[in-house]
Automatic annotation (TrEMBL):
SUPFAM superfamilies per record: Radical SAM enzymes (SSF102114)
Main enzyme class: lyase
GN (gene name): queE
Iron-sulfur among keywords: yes
Residue numbers binding [4Fe-4S] cluster: 34, 38, 41
Protein name as annotated: 7-carboxy-7-deazaguanine synthase
Sequence positions that bind S-adenosyl-L-methionine: 40-42, 83, 127-129
Chain positions recorded as Mg(2+) binding sites: 43
Superkingdom of the source species: Bacteria
Function: Catalyzes the complex heterocyclic radical-mediated conversion of 6-carboxy-5,6,7,8-tetrahydropterin (CPH4) to 7-carboxy-7-deazaguanine (CDG), a step common to the biosynthetic pathways of all 7-deazapurine-containing compounds.
Length: 239
């Protein structure tokens, strides 16, 4: 059981819609379960019990086989997201297997838990949660994680829904000045079915976020991005 990973989705190839490698062609592996419960989580199905019967406890070889079955020869990069993949030591084996097959590995996690296998991740995004999420940041855990990853290709990404979130982002950037920093538009309409409607709405939010960052002396060495996949496909799952 220990060397298995609880998987909810394997999909792609698509593009990484967020953060440090935005636009990169990639496959996704989405694990089940999270130690957080952000109010606005766009992947709440990974932890709210609504897709419990879809969770598969998979061997790493099975994960690779399914990636190859779906993605064929059309990928060389896999993004592991969730939920929080950092809940599982077994992800270590998956990374080794993917690397053995010359496939690069990216990770999305919130910085609440450490795993030794973080050191092997090629593109590691840490996304601490602002006040609007309803979650509390454990700063000592976050500092510990980032200190241990000083030599690695990592970034910080904070999702913004409010002015309070912006103040939080400023604080994170000031605490970790050398770490590439991304601000991301928060999507607070995760039930809209019409992608065009959502894109218009999110572009307005992007405009607002750019204006806020332009007006901040603290946020100079930063990147401001939308969720590209939300602009292209809306709230669709598995893209
Ligand atoms: C679903 S989470 C999974 C990985 C990990 N639990 C985390 O939060 O970093 C992947 C990314 O989506 C972001 N995200 C979640 N809900 C969002 C929303 N409604 N709008 C914008 N970004 C969102 C998270 O902040 C995180 O950066
Ligand atoms: N295309 C695409 N890019 C993404 N970047 C982060 C995602 C995630 O849910 O973790 C995500 C996702 O679900 N799809
Ligand atoms: S930490 Fe990530 S997966 Fe967990 S609830 Fe928050 S946004 Fe969702
Ligand atoms: Mg997502």
């Amino acid at each position: 059981m220990n060397n298995r990973i609880p998987v909810l989705e394997i999909f792609g190839p698509t593009i990484q819609g967020e953060g440090m490698v935005i636009g990169r062609k990639t496959m996704f592996v989405r694990t089940a379960g999270c130690d957080y419960s952000c109010t606005w989580c766009d992947s709440a199905f990974t932890w709210d019990g609504s897709t419990k019967e879809e969770i598969r406890q998979m061997e790493t070889e099975e994960v690779l086989a399914e990636l190859k079955q779906i993605g064929g020869e059309y990928f060389d990069h896999v993004t592991i997201s969730g939920g929080n993949p950092a809940l599982f030591t077994s992800v270590n084996e998956l990374i080794d297997l993917l690397h053995h097959h010359h496939i690069e590995v990216a990770l999305e996690t919130q910085g609440s838990r450490w795993q030794d296998w973080f050191l092997k991740v090629d593109d590691l995004t840490i996304s601490p949660k602002p006040p609007s999420s309803g979650m509390e940041t454990d700063w000592s855990v976050l500092h510990n994680i980032i200190n241990r990853l000083k030599e690695n290709n990592i970034s910080l990404k904070v999702v913004i829904f409010s002015r309070g979130d912006l103040a939080y982002a400023e604080k994170v950037h000031q605490r970790f000045p050398g770490i590439p920093f991304y601000l991301q538009v928060g999507n607070d309409d995760i039930i809209e079915k019409n992608p065009d409607q959502l894109a218009l709405y999110l572009l307005e939010k992007y405009h607002w976020l750019i204006d806020q960052v332009v007006a901040s002396k603290t946020l100079n060495q930063v990147h401001v991005l939308p969720q590209l996949h939300a602009l292209v496909w809306g709230n669709k799952r598995g893209v």
